[in-house]
């Protein structure tokens, strides 16, 4: 059976590799253009205004609030709103370059896209999180109105303000991210294990790149396990 620390390190490596794959076109100067989303057979007649939509990916889940008429409000990292107010440019499909720079600059926007552009060919789960919140589910119209009020530029943080925080606030009244909680528990488990020197270094480097943390606060996290290992 695989060691839990090895499993955690493997998960973090996969996430880091995913980020590098997205960054590669930017480094190569390709222009960062995205291809149109693959055609999806989405029956929007089964969606109701205020529904919480989930699109499971290989390593993460993307969330949005359905507004009706084939429109989904969702939070995405995006650098472009920091440089222009031109809604025609901002409303174009977010490229990898815009997304990665938005993560680094900790800038995002709550935007509206079609179901096809939101799901990008993935399967859609509807109100799958309701079972976790029981009596906390707000009315569908209230959820949709909350999403509409938050439209526009906002700060981005993987830990405190991501797409899952956005939808849980809209539908359940409190911003929560189970993905973030799981990620943080994984990081803690790796750092607590003094044998995981390489994994701890990767965690620190990933924190600088993915979370936008300052190197001055992250570098001690990288090297403390190394010194503990040396001392042990």
From TrEMBL:
This is Lecithin retinol acyltransferase. Keywords: Acyltransferase, Cytoplasm, Endoplasmic reticulum, Endosome, Lipid metabolism, Membrane, Sensory transduction, Signal, Transferase, Transmembrane, Transmembrane helix, Vision. PANTHER family: LECITHIN RETINOL ACYLTRANSFERASE (PTHR46678). Residues 1-28 form the signal peptide. Pfam families: LRAT. GO terms for cellular component: endoplasmic reticulum membrane; late endosome; perinuclear region of cytoplasm; rough endoplasmic reticulum. The keyword Transport does not apply. Belongs to the H-rev107 family. Residues 52-179 form the LRAT domain. Pathway: Cofactor metabolism; retinol metabolism. GO terms for molecular function: phosphatidylcholine-retinol O-acyltransferase activity. One of its GO terms (biological process) is visual perception. Its main location: cytoplasm. Its EC number is 2.3.1.135. It catalyses: 1,2-didodecanoyl-sn-glycero-3-phosphocholine + all-trans-retinol--[retinol-binding protein] = 2-dodecanoyl-sn-glycero-3-phosphocholine + all-trans-retinyl dodecanoate + apo--[retinol-binding protein]; all-trans-retinol--[retinol-binding protein] + a 1,2-diacyl-sn-glycero-3-phosphocholine = apo--[retinol-binding protein] + an all-trans-retinyl ester + a 2-acyl-sn-glycero-3-phosphocholine; 1,2-dihexadecanoyl-sn-glycero-3-phosphocholine + all-trans-retinol = all-trans-retinyl hexadecanoate + 2-hexadecanoyl-sn-glycero-3-phosphocholine; 1,2-dioctanoyl-sn-glycero-3-phosphocholine + all-trans-retinol--[retinol-binding protein] = 2-octanoyl-sn-glycero-3-phosphocholine + all-trans-retinyl octanoate + apo--[retinol-binding protein]. Transfers the acyl group from the sn-1 position of phosphatidylcholine to all-trans retinol, producing all-trans retinyl esters. Retinyl esters are storage forms of vitamin A. LRAT plays a critical role in vision. It provides the all-trans retinyl ester substrates for the isomerohydrolase which processes the esters into 11-cis-retinol in the retinal pigment epithelium; due to a membrane-associated alcohol dehydrogenase, 11 cis-retinol is oxidized and converted into 11-cis-retinaldehyde which is the chromophore for rhodopsin and the cone photopigments. It is a single-pass membrane protein.
């Amino acid at each position: 059976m695989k060691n839990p620390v090895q499993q955690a390190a493997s998960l973090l490596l996969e996430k880091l590799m995913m980020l590098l794959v997205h960054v590669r076109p930017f480094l190569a100067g390709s222009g960062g253009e995205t291809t149109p989303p693959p055609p999806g057979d989405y029956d929007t007649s089964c969606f109701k205004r205020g529904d919480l939509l989930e699109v499971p990916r290989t390593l993460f889940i993307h969330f949005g609030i359905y507004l009706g008429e084939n429109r989904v409000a969702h939070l995405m990292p995006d650098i472009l709103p920091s440089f222009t107010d031109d809604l025609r440019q901002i409303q174009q499909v977010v490229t990898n370059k815009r997304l990665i720079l938005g993560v680094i600059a900790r800038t995002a926007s709550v935007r509206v896209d079609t179901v096809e552009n939101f799901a990008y060919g993935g399967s859609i789960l509807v109100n799958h999180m309701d079972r976790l919140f029981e009596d906390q589910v707000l009315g569908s119209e209230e959820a949709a109105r909350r999403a509409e009020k938050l439209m526009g530029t906002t700060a981005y943080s993987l830990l405190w303000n991501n797409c899952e925080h956005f939808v849980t606030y809209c539908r359940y009244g409190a911003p929560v991210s189970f993905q973030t909680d799981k990620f943080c528990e994984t990081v803690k488990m790796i750092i607590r294990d003094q044998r995981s020197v390489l994994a701890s270094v990767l965690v620190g480097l990933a924190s600088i790149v993915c979370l936008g943390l300052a190197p001055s606060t992250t570098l001690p996290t990288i090297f403390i396990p190394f010194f503990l290992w040396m001392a042990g």
